[in-house]
Automatic annotation (TrEMBL):
<feature type="domain" description="Shedu protein SduA C-terminal">
    <location>
        <begin position="184"/>
        <end position="362"/>
    </location>
</feature>
<dbReference type="Pfam" id="PF14082">
    <property type="entry name" value="SduA_C"/>
</dbReference>
<dbReference type="InterPro" id="IPR025359">
    <property type="entry name" value="SduA_C"/>
</dbReference>
<protein>
    <recommendedName>
        <fullName>Shedu protein SduA C-terminal domain-containing protein</fullName>
    </recommendedName>
</protein>
Length: 368
């Protein structure tokens, strides 16, 4: 038989007090039990397992239980996929509290628990989240503990300001789609994309808001790439991007043999030349890109640089860098055949190089 059923607030070693559901029972043998039910995400503190002793002695000090009570720990399953068969009742453990941090947990099945407590299945089928009395009490206690528990993390004001500023200047996907539809030349793409370098960060930066973008980025051999992107943590990712227009299709059929179009071959040869210099002068190039990064982070706007909302990159200038090469150009005609061709080329090329059409590139964009 159930004696009590209430939400209990307990002291914890964490920032906030904890909340759990307490039920007390007496069975037909006059044995006393107390069930501690964890409230999962609605518990603002440590779990009942971590604070079990504090809950137990808190209940004793407030006169809810005595030393005669045996303790059962209970976790309800909120996830529907975990609520099948006996799992729908949750997980139970009979707890032995011993001095000197020697508490022991003994897993029990629901049949054993129902026998201990002398109750029906409905006692544990009726979840805490289906009981409005408990829901109201939980929300009231959470509000009293701290009214902004569910408010979320307050970001740095400068990060928010920078994000809003970049958002205000964003191009939309339609503007790029129009260039593709109009079979626009390389210059038209360059003129548009230089206005919003976040397009490349959106597709290639990781973590998403930690990046520095450049246009007309010098490599060191007298040549340049159309765009460059610095991102990642610890080891910096350097992504070098060469583009062409959309006035041609990616592949041409030469008597049954499909090859890249001439303009795409030109773009590939251009970035191959850049990659050749980079890998022949790797140590020098690594120092160079970190020097550029540090100058931009210090406030110098080099090569039309654009720094992401999170500001300075958390990278180590003493570590190796990851270098990636991207070529974007042309229009998609036969997506499957082109995908095979691009994959075949990318796998056979060393160093690796990634090839996109403008159609495949905009599919990667999350903006509307």
């Amino acid at each position: 038989m159930k004696l009590n059923d209430f939400i209990f607030e307990y002291e914890s070693n964490t920032r906030y007090p904890g909340l759990c559901r307490i039920r007390t029972f007496i069975n037909n043998k006059n044995e006393l039990y107390v069930v501690f039910t964890d409230l999962d995400i609605k518990n603002p503190s440590a779990s009942v397992t971590n604070d079990l002793e504090k809950i137990y002695y808190g209940l004793m000090n407030n006169g809810f239980i005595t030393q005669k009570y045996k303790v059962i720990e209970h976790y309800e399953h909120i996830d529907v996929f975990l609520s099948l068969g006996d799992a729908k009742f949750g997980e139970f453990s009979l707890v032995e509290l011993k001095a000197g941090d020697m508490t022991l947990w003994h897993r029990c099945n629901v049949k054993q628990i129902l026998e201990f407590l002398d109750v029906k299945e409905e006692e544990f089928l009726n979840k805490t989240w289906n009981d409005w009395r408990h829901i109201n009490t939980i929300e009231q206690k959470r509000t009293r503990i701290y009214p902004f528990l569910d408010y979320g993390f307050n970001e740095n004001i400068e990060v928010i300001r920078r994000r809003l500023e970049l958002e205000d200047n964003k191009l939309n996907k339609v503007q790029i789609s129009e260039l593709i539809s109009n079979k626009s030349a390389e210059k038209d793409f360059l003129d548009l994309l230089k206005k919003d370098l976040t397009i490349f960060a959106e597709v290639y930066a990781s973590p998403p808001e930690e990046y520095i973008c450049f246009s007309e980025f010098p490599i060191g051999d007298g040549g340049r790439v159309d765009f460059a992107l610095f991102s990642s943590r610890s080891r910096m990712d350097v992504t070098l991007i060469e583009i062409k227009g959309a006035e041609f299709e990616l592949m041409v059929n030469n008597g049954g043999y499909y090859t890249f179009s001439k303009k795409m071959e030109i773009a590939i040869s251009q970035i191959k030349a850049r990659s050749g210099y980079v890998h022949r002068n790797y140590s020098e190039f690594r120092k160079y890109v970190h020097q550029v990064r540090q100058e931009v982070e210090g406030g110098n706007r080099l090569y039309n640089s654009l720094i992401g909302p999170k500001g300075n990159l958390l990278v180590d200038p003493n570590k190796d860098i990851n270098i990636r090469y991207i070529v974007i150009g042309g229009r998609t005609n036969d997506d499957l055949r082109e995908s095979w061709k691009r994959h075949e080329y990318e796998c056979s090329n060393n160093p690796p190089m990634h090839i996109e059409t403008w159609n495949s590139f905009i599919r990667r964009m999350s903006r509307s």
